Structures are given as structure tokens and as C-alpha cells.
Amino acid sequence: MTRTLRVEMRAIHKVYADGTIALRGVDFRIGQQEIVGLLGENGAGKSTLMKILSGFVRPTRGEILVDGVPRRFGSPADALRVGIGMVHQTFTLVPVYSALENILLGQEATGPLRPPQWRGMRRRIEQLMEETGLTVPLDAPVETLPVGVQQRVEILKVLSRGTSILILDEPTSALTPREVTDLFAFLRGLKARGSAIVFITHKLREVLEIADRVVVLRAGQVTGERSSADATPEMLAEMMVGRAVVPRISRLFRTPGRPVLEVRSLGVLSDRGTLAVRDLSFEVREGEVFGIAGVEGNGQSELVQALTGLRPAASGEVLLHGAPVLFLSPLELYRRGMSHIPEDRTRFGLALEFDVAENSLLGRQAEPAFVGPLGRLRWDRVLRYAAELVDRFQIHTPGLRVPVRSLSGGNQQRLVVGRELSKRPTLVVAVHPTRGLDVASTAYIRELLVRMRDEGGAVLLVSADLDEVLELSDRIAVMYEGRFVGVGTTERWSREAIGMMMGGIVPHGVQDAAVRPVHR
Amino acid sequence: MPRFARSIVDSATALLVGLVCGGVLMRAFGYQPMAAYRALVVGAFGSVPDLLETLAFATPLALTALTFSVGVRAGLFNIGAEGQVYVGALGAAFVGGSVLLPPGAHLVAVTCAAMACGAAWALLPALLRIWRGVHEVISTIMANWIAFFLTTYVAVTFLGEPGRAERTRPVWPTARFPVLTEDASLTAVAFVALGLCLLVYTYLWGTRAGYELRLVGSNPDAARYAGVRTRRVVVASFLLGGMSAGLAGGSQVFGRPPAWSLYATLGNVATLGFDGIGVALVGRNHPLGGLLSAILFGALQHGGRYMEYQAGVVSELVRAITGLVVVALAVPELWRLIWRRR
């Protein structure tokens, strides 16, 4: 390498307190005036690696050298002091503060008795905006600014602290194509003026466009490194998702039956008001697992929330057993045969302060079997049913009256999955059903989902874990920026092709499947 | 029940800390802490009339604590009990003093009037919340002041006792709950209060609607996921709380001698609503915990007077000491609430 080395990370290991191994000996270098693309799936360790470099997370083992000097960062402030700053995927702005106040937050040249020296600081920021070409309206409250401008505020916030090594975590995920172009132009300018940049992403095309060099992480290890001039999307996709052949769970041979869920031209808005799901059409049939793969944040959450009655749809139609169901409440959807294993069990699936019995009743509290005269709950029946769940789904708990907070993640998830399957659904919407679980629980829950399919149920599986989707699904769709890049039977595609689609590139020969809606 | 036992231990520890702090304070001012506390305890619980007087103080507090607790259980910070108390007392003063009904029926009528008025006053913040997203802290504080002036105005202008401007016409004897003994101001309204607490307890933990209410308070997202209609829950929680606060206000009119009326200054109902917040916090926002904690607060109020008479502690210091005890007792629950809100 001809460039001077700015940062060298050697043999970085990270084991989180809960035992999750995020990084297994990663070497990573950043050169002077270089844009490094850091590529990988969810959970590959990209963000962890960069949080270590920027002082947010401490490594379990490994060394960091900045400009040749070994460093240990106790906090982000330590990293900033040597010129390393990170812009996070979720912004850390105070909505009601002005852009200037946000930029200067924490660096007001002030003492307890000295008012902030706004004028001097303002001049400094204005100068910085001129130099970098990143202009923002300094006096506007941040909440009134579009996302792209908010991101500029974030970047200015980091740069104003004298950063010469800038880390951006998935910076384009919320931007419009126009804003992406502007961002790239700015990054090139910043590089020309001497900064080094790390660009974390899962988007193949973008990384090839902006980065000088691409480092690919998978499961906490570097699986490849190429200068972008020598890299092709195929190559990167393979490094990203690996080659291993996933053994599929044994399943009955059956031809899918009638459609259970039909989605037609569905559009759903995100919280930011942008279209997160764009004109999506698909169906899930009896006796099949339909898997949606893709990197998180490409509209999966919004899709699922619209299907399960938690978010209104902007356009389109959804049929369950042939009847339109958009805008029905979750309770009504359940009555019509849908059950939902939510993506975040502690947010939607459980009330952590409630005990096991109370949580097993979640969503079933209106069932006549559990409600007596005057709306009284029949606790005897609830407890009997909860005991059945605990027994049947092998939930390890000290008792039925214990808050679920005290259960392990695996047992919490077994409770959610058990409860949802005990509703005797004809359609299960399962989102990241095994995230963060141990091997035994993972295998058990996957087995349950396939058994449900074998018995003629329909399963809509949404998962960021490609292995999981490949292992369980009869048909797969890959979601990217609110659309399906491809839909087809699982046997049809190579892993590499799916990896490319996850990165937003449609391999040859897939286009037809992507365009044509799947019909009976 | 280990969770229940732990709450008791926590509260006992907090009580001890509060008492020790109060003792240090008294020492600093040259009083005898042990003698003063003795006067407090004997004064509050030493004889049957004293015990009943303590309970008389506790009765409205248990009810206003219930108001706050039912709010917190639904995830709401309803601090509107104060205003609901005023309006409830006003309703009681009107139906009790200006309407003639046969015995029995009149008691039922005043009780219902107090609860209905309290509930009606709670409806406004509830509707503002579900229709316009107005935060209940803001709306209830404003409603409290509106209630204060409205109640004062109506009481003085329309319900005043001729010749005695300082209070409303006393309620008719048919609208008075029977006094239990001649030596204390406790009346049978205490049983109604107790009944309401038990009823709300059964509602919260024994019915589907109560389950949904607690679910909304515990995890609103999970409640949506479970198909709970959050707006309904908000309204239900406010109405229940308003009923309870209204009864608390009414109880001071139709269930507390010697006044049997509402003072024009609202002096016999003022601060009941705010005190209820402290009572609820000490009672861990549980209807039954609120009962116990209300008795404790009643004891501090009633027994505190003896600290003054018998141990000679100046009344300002007595108030400071009871304040210390209350703060110490409320800290564990307050801490938990703050943590949860993060």
C-alpha cells in the first residue's frame, strides 16, 4: 500500500457481556486520504468494529494504533481527541434545538458562570461549512429539517471537533438518491482535503462507487479485502454471505394449496413519512414457508406491521382467506387466523413486568374461554393453559407467577412462539424468530415453524439471517429498498445471487422473476 | 407472596430512615425525639377513638391515592385528583343540601353524585388526551385550577348557607353517613371507600378490562399488538380515578362531622388530591398498598398533633418531620417510576 497508514487495528476481539461473540480477531487498516468501504450483513460485526475504533465500545482483546501510536479509548471523547469521529445510523440530535446548538452540544466554550460564546463559535462553524461545502440552516430547529440535512448536521457535529478520520454507519439508508449523490460528492471533497473515511454499508453498488478499498466482514471475521478497482459485485456478495450450503430442515413433500395471504400493490410509509414499502405484491399459500430475506431496514418492519394491523397502509390491498383485511385490528386478524411472532419480543411480544401466565394471555385476553361473566378473567383456566404452554414448548421458568423479565431470551421467545402457535393459526407471520437465541432454542423454533407448514399452515418468515431463510423457506423473496428484487423457489438461486440481491444488484436472469408477480 | 413481602420490607426501611432523619432534625433543635415519636404513635393508635380518628383522616387519602394509582397502572400521570375532589364535594353539597329525598335513597344519591361529578371532571383531560394528544399533566393541572374557582364560585353563590358565608348549606340528616362513635369523626363512609378500593383491585387484577389497562401501562406497544383499544383504556382509567376522587371529596361533606358541608375556602377538602399522590407512591400504586399507606398518612396527620401538644415540638417542625418521612417513603417507588420512564 502506497498510502501512509492512519489507523491500524490488530486482532480485535469482542465478546459482549451476554456471551455474544461479535468479532473474532479482526485486522483493519485505514490509510491517509482513503475511503474504506466496510461491507457485511446484519450482525457481521461492522458497527461493533467501528464503535470500538470510535471509543463507544471497548474491545475484549486487540490493539489500536493511530498514526503509529498505540491507543486505548475509554470513551468517544478519547477517540475524538486523536481525530476519530463516528456518525451513527440513528441520529443523536436534540429535535427542538437549532442546528447550531446541536453541532456545538457538549463543546460550548463555557464555564458554570460564563455564558456560551455563541458568536465566536458560530463563526467557526460557518467557516467549516464553507470549507466542506456542507451547508445547513444554522438557526432552524433540527426537527424541521429533512433527513438528509439532519445528517449533515450530524456530520458537521463530528467534523467541528477536528475529526480527520470520519466513520459513517449506513449513511445512505435514509437518503433519497439525490441526497446520496450530494453526500458522495462531499465525501470525495473531504478526502481530497486529507481526511480518511470509513463507510459502513450493505449496498454493493454504493460501496463500489465511493470506496477505494472494500473490506468484507462475516460473522465477526474479515472474509475478504479488495481494492474496488479489482472487485466485482459477485465477488463481494460471495464474501458477504459465504458459500456454505445450508442443510434444509426435513419437511414433507407437498404442493402448496390455496393462497392464504394475498398482498397486492401494497405501499406503506415509514415513521419519517417516506415510502418504506413500494407497490409490493405477493402471496403465501397453504403448506408453504414464504421467506423474505434482506438486510434490515429495507421495509420489512413496515411491511409486517401493515400486515399485522400495527401500521396503516398507504395504498394497495391485503386479502386473508380471500377477504380484505387491511385496517383490521390485531385482535380481529387473530380471529381470522393470523398470528404474529413480532420482530422485537420485548417491545411487542411481551410485557416484561407481567408474569408468565399474564403474558401467555397476551392477545387472547378476549377469548370466551378465558373470560367469565362481568368480564372477569378465569385465572384458573389461564393458569392451566399457561402451564400447558410451559410444558409443551419446554419453557424453563421457576413458575407461572414469575415476571418474564427474569427469563432468559430463549425462554422468553419460546413463550412468544408457543403462545402464537397455540392460537391454532392458519397463517403465522414470524419475524426474526430466532434472533439472539442459543442453538437449541433456534433449532426447536425452526422445527416448530416447519411442522406448522407440514400440517398445511402458511408461514410468512421475515429474517435478516440468510441461513434461516434458506433453511426454512419453500419460496424466497429478497427485499431491497421497499421492493422485492427477486421472488422464486429456494432451489432456484445460488447463495451468491441472493447476496447480490441483498446488496441491491439483480443478477442476470432474475429480472423476469422480479418483474412478474407470482400467480397460482 | 414474596413480592408483597419485599415491598413491606422496603417501605419499613424507608420509614425507619425517615424517622431517623426526623430525629436528627429534632435533636438539632433541642427536642427529645423519642418522646416526640412516642407522642406521635400513642396519639395515632393509643386509644380506640384515636385509632378511629386516624382512620377518618385515612379514608379520603386512600381514595385519592386510588385515583393516582389507577392512572399510573394505565401509564398515565393523572394529577387531577385535586380538582376532581372539589367537584365531587360540590356535587355532594348540592344533592345533600338542596335536594330532598327519603333516607337511604338520599345516601345513595349523594354518593353517586360525588362520584359522577368527579368522573365528569376527569373526562375533560381524558378526551383532550385521546383526541388532541394533550399531556395529562398539563391538562389536569389546568383543570385543577378551573375546578378550584368554579367550585368556590358555585358554592358561595348558589349553595351558601344563609347567614354563614363561610360554608355551603349543611347536607340534610338523611344525606349523612352514620357516625361510628361519638368520640371520633369516622363515619360509615369509610366502608364505602374500602369497598371501592377492593372493587378497583378486583377490576385491575381480575377482569379482562383491568388486564388491558395494566397492559397499556406496562407496555403500550404490546397492548397494541394484543389488540387493546388504548383510547378506551385511557378514558376508563380517568373515569375510575375521577369517581374515586369525587367520592373522596364527597366523603368530607356527607361523611365527616362536624362540618357536613363544603367550606367556601374549600379548606376541608383542599390538598387531599395532592396528598393522594404521595400516599399512592408509598403504597406502590396498588389499591391495597394505598390503604395501608393511607392509614400511615392518617396517623402522621392525627398523631402529629400530639407531637405538638405533648412533646412541645413546634408545628412547623412537626410538618417538616412528617414531610421527611413521606419523602423517604416515596423514594423507592418514585425511583422505579423514573427509571421506567427513561
In words, what does this structure look like?
- Chain A is of the alpha/beta class and 520 residues long.
- Chain A contains 18 helices and 20 strands.
- Chain A has three domains: 5-83 and 164-240, P-loop containing nucleotide triphosphate hydrolases (Rossmann fold), CATH 3.40.50.300; 255-337 and 428-520, Rossmann fold, CATH 3.40.50.300; 344-424, no CATH class.
- The longest helix of chain A is centred in the middle third of the chain and has 16 residues, at 177-192.
- The radius of gyration of chain A is 25 Å and the shape is globular.
- Chain B has a single domain, classed as ABC transporter involved in vitamin B12 uptake, BtuC.
- Chain B has a two-stranded antiparallel sheet with strand order 1-2.
- In chain B, a hairpin with a 2-residue loop joins β1 (160-161) and β2 (164-168).
- In chain B, α3 (48-73) crosses α11 (272-282) and α5 runs antiparallel to α6.
- The longest helix of chain B is centred in the middle third of the chain and has 28 residues, at 105-132.
- Chain B is globular and about 60 Å long.
- The model of chain B has no long low-confidence stretch (mean pLDDT 92).
- The interface between A and B is medium-sized, with 31 and 18 residues.
